Fold each of these.
Amino acid sequence: MIKLIHTADLHLGSPIAGLPEDVSSELREELFTTLAKICELAESERADAILISGDLFDEPSPSRSVADRTFALLGRAGVPVFISPGNHDYMSVHSVYRRQDLPENVRIFRSERIEKIPCGEFDVYGAGFAAPVVERELLQGFRAEQGRHSVMVLHGEADVSSAYYHAVSPRDIAASGLSYLALGHIHARSEAVRAGDTLFAYPGCPMGRGFDETGEKGVYIVEIEERARARFVPLGARKFVTIESGERAVPDGFERDLVKLVLTGESEPIDTEALARELAPRAFYVKVVDRTRLPKRVRELAAEDSLAGAFLRALDAVRAESGDSGNAESEALAELAARYGLAALDGEEAPL
Ligand SMILES: [Mn+2]
């Protein structure tokens, strides 16, 4: 049996922006811990190789320390590591993958053309991005050498309708003769599916870097006997989690995680920063977003003979004149305008 660890899209060296600096720096560090866990998993599972399907780094030439730490970890992995450069860590002139001192077990597919590297009893195929965008459909006409098991490591999109990132079509995958196609690029994990006899999957990024990469992350362990099968293994890194709730609370169980609490329902304007500070001990990081609507009581102010009433009536008149009241976007905008205005009349800060 052949056993492989399949990962992609670590984006090592990425700044992880939009968070407080101490939180970002902790996460930047945890990216290396995650890579170390992947290497340890390869050892404990007695895997035959690690496949990294692109965007190992966030850019073609990461800092010396990011590159050195990465290759030191991969060099100690104890198994061959195959890397397909992606659209972020493409093969630029100054690409980190051109270094002469890479560990011996690290093999990189530097060419845009598909190459084959034999690995014991199976073959590993691959290709790399030469530029941030590659519009060619890569697998067209490809057929792996038969009689041996073969896998391919590739940063690309299994969707020919968006053709900028090594598009591969299910028809070409089915005709490839590969046992497994290890894809990268899509940061959300896909199920492992079959096209013909070829299994293919996106493992997704092994650790989230923002609230657009939520939930449990990990790698695929791929086992090939007659055919390939893949099972997802979570790596236990901190998770980004979005919770929509009417309650101004973070439930139990998120102490290690980054939580975005989206408040819904009806409420007076909420001081989101103060609430985030109050909830901070409930998670590694808490962000509060106010998506509540003003309570009826406040809306009834419009009928009052007061400055607030006059303001709300004027706002209604503007909305009626604009003619697009009723659609969700303009309703949300009107809601925000009402909140700003009422807060200002109360001498408060804008409720953001
Ligand atoms: Mn990526």
Note: Residues 21-44 form the longest helix (24 residues).
Amino acid sequence: MSSLRDLQGRTWAIIGASSGLARAYAHTVAVRGASVILIGRDTDDLARTAVDLQVRYGIQATVDSCDLSDRDGVALLVQRLKPVAAEGRLDLFFAAGVMPAQSAIEADPKRAAEVIEVNLTAPMTLLLGLAPAWEAAGSGTVVVVGSVAGDRGRLGNHVYGATKAGLATFTAGLRNRLGRSGVHVLTVKPGFLDTAMTWGLPGVGFAADPAVVSGTILAAALNRVDVAYVPWIWWGIMTIIAHVPEAIFKRLKI
Ligand SMILES: NC(=O)c1ccc[n+]([C@@H]2O[C@H](COP(=O)([O-])OP(=O)(O)OC[C@H]3O[C@@H](n4cnc5c(N)ncnc54)[C@H](OP(=O)(O)O)[C@@H]3O)[C@@H](O)[C@H]2O)c1
């Protein structure tokens, strides 16, 4: 067990806790003494993770159920988390996301709404709901996982990318709002990660290890970085991609 228990007294609510990245992040904060609330749909699976974290790190780990496509359910989750935020103990890691194939959405355009619901409506509802409690308490760290896919609309991924672009815009404004009360908001933009989301996709052989990326994210959050590309090389890649003239970019089949 790490001797650095500097997160004792903090409670990290981890939304989408069954995700490859979120599971790694739960270990990253738990080893430093934080309590965790693992939030997601498969509560049996999350309960096994909670026991593992308790046994390994001697921390408090609980499970909460929420389907992010259920708006009433998200509103109820806000009510359950509010007291912890009001006590000034709540930090939040929003990792949930869905990325159906662009071709599947084009075949059934109604599916675009599902992607928006989970990737954008749910985090907005949740974070706007908790914001007043964080403001009143004057303490908290919010980490929202976006994507480099939000930096430029691509042929192969522009519905998912649009939700991540919206999330980046939303979190920038929320950072401005909550920063006035001492609450920090970090927007994370991962490149390819080795998780279920990218499993079997072509061209992601160099996907990053979520455990390594999680450490980078926590360090960025504690250092009050505003926007973190992870791994950092994606900042350079996306800077180049952002500067490709649209007249050329629109012809690329990526
Ligand atoms: N993997 C990458 O290369 C990559 C790159 C850039 C950004 N990201 C972002 O990183 C974050 C974490 O993704 P990951 O790579 O760790 O993928 P993942 O393992 O597929 O995790 C996705 C998570 O979202 C949850 N989720 C989906 N729909 C939900 C719903 N309706 N209600 C509640 N939870 C729901 C899933 O829960 P269930 O287990 O219940 O389905 C799962 O925990 C996502 O926001 C993703 O967009 C990933």
Note: The longest helix spans residues 111-137.
Amino acid sequence: MSLPVERPHVEPDFKTTLDLGAVLPCTAEVKDGHLFIGGVDMVTLAHDMQTALYVMDEAHIRKQLRDYLEWTRFHWKNVDVIYAGKAFMSIAMCKIVDEEGCCLDVSSGGELAFARAAGFPTDRIFAHGNNKTVQELKEALDAGVGRIVVDSFEELERISTLAIERDMVQSVLIRVTPGVVADTHCYIQTGAEDSKFGFGLRDGLAMRAIERALELPGIDFAGLHMHIGSQIFALNSFAKAIEVIVHFMDDIRKETGAAVRELDTGGGLGIAYGAPDQPSSIKEYGKVVVDDIKAHCEDHGLPVPRIMVEPGRSIVANAGVTLYTVGTVKSIPGIRTYVAVDGGMTDNIRTALYDARYEPTIANKADQARSKVVTIAGKHCESGDIIVYDTPLQPAEVGDIVCVFATGAYCQSMSSNYNKQVRPGVVMVKDGVARLIVRRETYDDLLKCEIF
Ligand SMILES: Cc1ncc(COP(=O)(O)O)c(C=O)c1O
């Protein structure tokens, strides 16, 4: 069967690993032909642990969290950074987020359970989801989460009822869709008017939600939330949405007299997946978000609220790589060469889902030039089970360790057990030490929910 989409012709680029620049984790180095991350030899690690294996660079994660704190608070002291746990969540990750003084966004009861198991302070948790179940809302209230980000009228009523039953008041943010179409893949645009998320500004839906929040007992209207999409390169998409939402804050004051004390502008900053990608820096992003909010508030004579940003991908994506072992190399003359590895769409669905592109290298040939063009295929029963289509790579042989970069976000968290594949383990590397933070699944794990 032919590949589903016509693709541009690709030539070898003769790059060696370190030429891949911004795609790499910040501690990547090459010694004696081997790729090292966090001071750990990826080839030895792959041989010691089983592949497929996710590897996360702790220094990179901490640097990104610190950069967000530094470059947002540089412009306004009252800013919080909320890590979006959906990008990659584990107990170790929750602890790092806590240690760095950031907040945490959870988008299901399961993510809340992880945060609680990690001992994350619940008052710094933001609970998301466009259709939280009543059970999830109960769990959020009982845990004492800091804010629930409200997505529907039904949810407002449910929170009010549950809060009254518990004799408490729950602080909420109202999620607004500002009607801005972000410059990104349509599957990850969320701020347009036609979206399953949030309340639109047209037809007064968002204003009605705020009026309802203000009148309902058990609810404290703390402010607004928006998230216009993910993997966004154009900062003017954020700027446009901020202009719209601050204007709306003014409307709220005029119509209800209520103040928006908090404004959460969501996540979405893009990252480099491919060598040509040139995303904006956290420093540039922080300036646009915070300065624009301040400037528009000043124009409208509004007090500047507590500002929150909610990054996921830009914290963890480039920190993570996936290691695989080459099992077969199949050349179809005049067509293409398939290098098949011991993972695939179960550990990285993004290529099948979004036609995502990645940069690979061979970790045991990291100083060699990528002189061939191959397609890196997975081991699953789907033609679309491809990790990277037509990519430059060093000449691949059976037993080589392929390292795919920028897989730290939305890979492990979107992984599956299709074909009853066990999910890979996750190793955190730092200062020459490899720490297993999520063990590889076993067949017993796969069988544990079966009723015999
Ligand atoms: C509400 C919300 N906040 C934050 C994020 C994180 O976005 P990103 O990983 O692009 O920074 C998402 C991603 O889908 C989201 O839905």
Note: The chain has two domains: 17-57+317-447, 59-316.
